[in-house]
Amino acid sequence: MTSNQYAVILVYSTSHALRAERVLQKAGIPCKLIPVPRHISSDCGVCLRIKQADEEAARRALETAGVEIEGTHRI
Fold first, then answer.
1. Model confidence, pTM
2. In the chain, where are the structural domains located?
3. Please, what CATH class does the domain formed by 6-74 belong to?
4. Rounded to whole angstroms, how far apart are CA atoms 73 and 55?
5. How far is CA 60 from the centre of its chain?
6. Which of 5, 25, 36, 39 is least enclosed, having the fewest CB within 10 Å?
7. How far is CA 16 from the centre of its chain?
8. pLDDT tens string 39-64
9. Angle at 61 (CA atoms; ends 74, 6), nearest 5 degrees
């Protein structure tokens, strides 16, 4: 796994995405809000891009903070 491989975290709403971003930043996990890639979903919306290496830590941080996610996809 190289450091330039990413995963996206899908959430249920823009407000969930903003909350998730704050949680990940507080946990020291670099993330970026981006539009959901069309090959994943045609719905309008945003998701969080993280490094694949941070995927498990991000899931744990979000679960601990009570932020529900739809899922993750590697891109």
1. 0.87
2. 6-74
3. alpha beta
4. 10
5. 12
6. 39
7. 10
8. 887 566 999 999 999 999 999 999 99
9. 20
